[in-house]
User: Fold tRNA (guanine-N(1)-)-methyltransferase from Mesorhizobium marinum.
Amino acid sequence: MSFRATVLTLYPEMFPGALGLSLAGRALEAGAWSLEPVQIRDFAADRHRTVDDSPAGGGAGMVMRADVLARAIDHASPQGDPRPRLLMSPRGRPLTQARVRELAAGPGAVILCGRFEGVDQRVIEARGLEEVSVGDFILSGGEPAALVLLDAVVRLLPGVMGNAASGDEESFESGLLEHPQYTRPQVFEGLQIPDVLTSGNHARIARWRREQAEMLTAERRPDLLAAKEATTTTG
Assistant:
C-alpha cells in the first residue's frame, strides 16, 4: 500500500505545489504516494462557510472552530483509519529526522493546516491531533509547513531516491551535520578538492568525513552533539 497523505486546508490550490516536481512529483505520478487536499470550508454549516470566530476571553485575531474542523477530520479520517493526525503548529514538538522516518514507514498522514491565531484546543484533544513544528518561527499558515513535512517524508519512501544509501549519509541521520561535499572541477578559483578525497584510501576518507562532520556540528549545532553524548551515556 502506498503512502497516503490527506491535507485539510483553506487553500487546497497550494497542493501539490513543489511536491508535484522533482523526486516527489515523479513518485506521485508513479503512485508511490498519493495526496488529497480537502477544503475545510466545505464542512462549515452556514451559508457564508464560516470556519473561525473570535477567541474566548478576548484578544486579537480569530480562532478556527472546533465543530467545523471536527467534521472535516471525521470525513478525511473516519474511525479505523490508522494514519496519524498531525496539526502543523509553531507550538508543536520539533520535527526530527527520526519522526520523518517513522512517518515514512507508516501508511500515511492526515495533516491539518492551521490559520489565524490557531485552532480550538478542544478539537486538538477530541481528535487526538499531534502538534508538529518545523521551526521556531511563525508562518502565515500551516500549508508551507505541511509541504516541508511531506517533502521530507516522501523522499524516504521505497524507490523514490535513486540511491537509497544517499539518505543514510545526510545531516541528522547519524546525529551530526553532513560533512562538506566536493565534485569536479579539481580546481575552482584556486581552491582544490582536499587531497584525502582523491587518495583512494577509503578508511582515510571515512575518517576525514567523520571529523569534518563533528567539527561542523560543534560549530553550528552543539545541541546535537550534547544530545548524542547524552544518548551514548544513558545507553
